[in-house]
Specification:
α6 packs antiparallel against α11. By secondary structure, the protein is mostly helical. The termini are far apart. Helices cover 71% and strands 0% of the residues.
């Protein structure tokens, strides 16, 4: 069955290019309006498609939304995994913080989709929370192991992780505020290395870890 005629199909782009355009449009719409406030009409228009064309490639907006939400959760599980057998907490935590910060800077719209879902009550996250708690518990166990070996000061490992999440994700969810406070124009790039250095030093010093 041929794809319906329209702006993109007339140029005969590959299927992957069209799907990438749909995905990009969905990210923009969901990050701005959430699932409830977004429409397939708006996603189609942003992707350069008609609504019938869009539905040739996807069943509905819920399918797109779940895929993008699951990407966030997959990244947080795989990309931000701890080195379980690391003997020194400093390098592991520093790497974790930098990766989280890079993700916030490089994928702000994806991050905001998750944040908006939480603010909307997290109804689409019900099946995620048990796994999230399990992944977090693994990190907590590793941190508690470091504490037991005297490699860092006693602290609440779970709260430490949540503090790191809050500080790094802030640069995605509150990018506008960051630019205003730094005196930057709205579209100016934010220099991330000074932020990373300060944040890593702040966390490691707070943990009583010698760098």
């Amino acid at each position: 069955m041929p794809a319906p005629e329209g702006p993109l199909s007339r140029a005969r782009p590959g299927r992957e290019r069209i799907l990438a355009a749909i995905r990009s449009a969905a990210i923009a719409e969901f990050s701005l309006h959430g699932l409830k406030g977004s429409s397939t009409q708006a996603i189609a228009a942003r992707a350069g498609l008609t609504k019938p064309q869009l539905h040739y490639y996807i069943a509905g907006k819920e399918e797109l939304y779940e895929e993008l939400l699951m990407q966030v959760l997959h990244d947080w599980k795989v990309v931000f995994a701890f080195e379980e057998h690391a003997s020194a907490p400093g390098p592991v935590l520093a790497d974790y913080i930098r990766k989280k910060l890079d993700h916030a800077f490089d994928n702000p719209e994806i991050s905001r989709i998750f944040t908006r879902e939480v603010l909307d009550g997290g109804r689409n996250l019900a099946r995620y929370w048990p796994n999230a708690r399990a992944w977090t518990q693994k990190k907590v166990d590793i941190i508690n192991g470091w504490i037991a070996r005297g490699l860092m000061r006693p602290l609440d490992a779970r709260l430490l992780l949540m503090h790191i999440w809050a500080m790094t994700q802030s640069y995605a969810d509150y990018a506008l505020q960051t630019r205003v406070m730094l005196g930057l124009p709205p579209d100016a790039p934010i220099e991330r290395e000074p932020i990373a250095r300060e944040l890593v030093a702040f966390v490691l010093n707070g943990c009583g870890i010698d760098r």
